């Protein structure tokens, strides 16, 4: 979306005196008050901003962890995609920057569109799940395919590295996730043919009614295997 607004990147200097968010609407760039958003999680922040500004904006926001400058805090994009390395959310919190909101309508000019489309078509064909078993498996499971593989290889960090093989893998396996909770596969990018992400729903139990996108391998590993938790619904809830 940032590229569609006409920008390649943003550099933010200094620190606001009070919570703010940055609104980029094509050529209009405004710093706006975010006091009412401070203290809210990324889901609430995303919903509030899109209700006020329209559903056609992209929101990069921090939650309470970023606000309190937790060193491993993430920046969350449109709720579900994370910039999770190196504590980027902590940096936004240190700047009192709750969110960056972007709406772009300019499009992108390509110097040689025919060449680009030809290359894109070749790449798309190479990722066709119908022509590769490996691609088909990744399209079905996404990164959760690594759960069982790493268990076989002995690569897990079970109970904070007390072991490397999780003896209750069948309780949180990719197959169980797909069979019981996944409603459909989705894509993190409009034109990606893999659709390796998942939209899941919990239909019964204490977390009935909860739904969301993904989870990736790292979430199930961090909130499950690493902690010795074999309750998949609890992992999805967190």
UniProtKB/TrEMBL annotation:
Keywords, comma-separated and alphabetical: 4Fe-4S, Iron, Iron-sulfur, Metal-binding
Listed InterPro entries: Ald_Fedxn_OxRdtase_dom2 (IPR013984), Ald_Fedxn_OxRdtase_N (IPR013983), Ald_Fedxn_OxRdtase_N_sf (IPR036503), OxRdtase_Ald_Fedxn_C (IPR001203), Tungsten_al_ferr_oxy-like_C (IPR036021), W-dependent_AOR (IPR051919)
Classification lineage: unclassified sequences, metagenomes, ecological metagenomes
Identification of the protein by name: Aldehyde ferredoxin oxidoreductase N-terminal domain-containing protein
Domain Aldehyde ferredoxin oxidoreductase N-terminal: 2-106
Family indicated by similarity: Belongs to the AOR/FOR family.
Cofactor(s) of this protein: [4Fe-4S] cluster
Pfam families xrefs: AFOR_C, AFOR_N
Record keyword ATP-binding present: no
Gene3D superfamilies: Aldehyde Ferredoxin Oxidoreductase Protein, subunit A, domain 2, Aldehyde ferredoxin oxidoreductase, N-terminal domain
Source organism (scientific name): marine sediment metagenome
GO terms assigned for molecular function: 4 iron, 4 sulfur cluster binding; electron transfer activity; metal ion binding; oxidoreductase activity, acting on the aldehyde or oxo group of donors, iron-sulfur protein as acceptor
């Amino acid at each position: 979306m940032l590229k569609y607004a006409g920008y390649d990147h943003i550099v933010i200097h200094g620190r606001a005196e009070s919570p703010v968010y940055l609104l980029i609407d094509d050529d209009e760039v405004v710093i706006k008050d975010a006091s009412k958003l401070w203290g809210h999680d990324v889901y609430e922040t995303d919903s509030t901003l899109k209700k006020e500004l329209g559903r056609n904006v992209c929101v990069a926001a921090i939650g309470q962890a970023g606000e309190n400058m937790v060193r491993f805090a993430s920046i969350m994009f449109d709720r579900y995609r994370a910039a999770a390395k190196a504590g980027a959310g902590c940096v936004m919190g240190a700047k009192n920057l709750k969110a960056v909101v972007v709406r772009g309508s300019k499009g992108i000019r390509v110097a040689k569109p025919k060449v680009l489309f030809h290359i894109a078509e070749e790449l798309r064909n190479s990722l066709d799940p119908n022509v590769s078993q490996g691609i088909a498996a990744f399209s079905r499971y996404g990164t959760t395919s690594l759960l069982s593989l790493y268990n076989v290889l002995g690569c897990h960090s079970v109970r904070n590295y007390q072991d490397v093989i999780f003896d209750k893998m069948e309780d949180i396996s990719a197959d169980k996730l797909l069979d019981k909770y996944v409603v459909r596969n989705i894509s993190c990018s409009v034109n990606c043919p893999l659709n390796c992400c998942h939209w899941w729903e919990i239909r019964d139990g204490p977390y009935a009614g909860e739904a969301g996108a993904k989870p990736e391998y790292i979430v199930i590993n961090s909130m499950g295997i690493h902690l010795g938790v074999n309750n998949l619904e609890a992992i999805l809830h967190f």
